[in-house]
Amino acid sequence: MCKISFQQYLKTKNILSIIVFHLSIMALICVLIFISFPCPFKFIFGIPCPACGTLHALHAIICGNLYEYMRHNYLAIPMIMAFWFGMHKKILFKNNVFIDVFIYVVCTLVVIKYFLKLFVDFL
What we know:
Helix content: over 70%
Mean pLDDT: 82
Oligomer: single chain
Distance between the termini: 72 Å
Largest sheet: none
């Protein structure tokens, strides 16, 4: 009979919970993409959120429509990458400076795009 230590058990349980978490997030995103879920921020406040169009952009890129992806939100994939890198920065990337720079650049671009969309589209 193979015995494992309590530390190995906790590590295995932790890895499995991380995998289940990521799979459930991916499943939720897929469901939201294919049911065309509207933006709750825009519904409540009447103005688009900084991430508006991300689900539609992901749906377009999955279908292979680059024009629609660019039209909805051309920063969708970099935003998701920055979010994922930020979540796993300490564990996978050992606090890599390049990851920090990537996250800051993407956040800056999202803020600039958001204010341009708000003030140029609504003027």
